[in-house]
């Protein structure tokens, strides 16, 4: 009677792990380094904690070596059950749960890009910008133009490897008016924006 009750409770525990409220545990993908608890209701001598090897495999008595990495707990349970089936008169009831989850490495934050904005801007000098910052955004971060800026002759100077440096001259007003798309150019490390001073009567 106690064995039947124990089997019933164990099956209830597994069933609850599949309910919508426990979806995270059910959909979790097993990774190398995780520790799984494997329980066989019909033979508790097979119960044990197993470490998922770097190749995604685990070793279970009678079932042998099985690949479970990348799969869900339900898929691992199904594979173990299938591997044990020949050793039992009836299909065994297997419970697989997570004891320890390997720590997931956090992605490193990208370092800011160093660019220069010099000449007739309100805050000239070195500025640090995030990846994908555009030319227009960099000019804005430099405080915008002074009253003496020659906005029709703004330069983007970009390193070009063995070719030295390439210079792109553009009219800022045309960018604002939609006649030039250079304003959406993303800044690259070492870029320099040069805003010259207006000439007399310019």
UniProtKB/TrEMBL annotation:
Pfam family name, one: SLBB
InterPro entries per UniProt: Poly_export, Poly_export_N, Soluble_ligand-bd
Domain Soluble ligand binding: 114-169
Signal peptide: 1-25
Gene3D superfamilies reported in the protein's UniProt record: Outer membrane lipoprotein wza domain like (3.10.560.10), wza like domain (3.30.1950.10)
Transmembrane segments: none
Keyword line: Signal
Record has Plastid as a keyword: no
Domain (Polysaccharide export protein N-terminal): residue spans on this chain: 23-98
Superkingdom, taxonomy of origin: Bacteria
SUPFAM superfamilies: Nqo1 middle domain-like (SSF142984)
This protein's name: Polysaccharide export outer membrane protein
The organism's taxonomic lineage, starting at the top: Bacteria, Pseudomonadati, Pseudomonadota, Alphaproteobacteria, Rhodobacterales
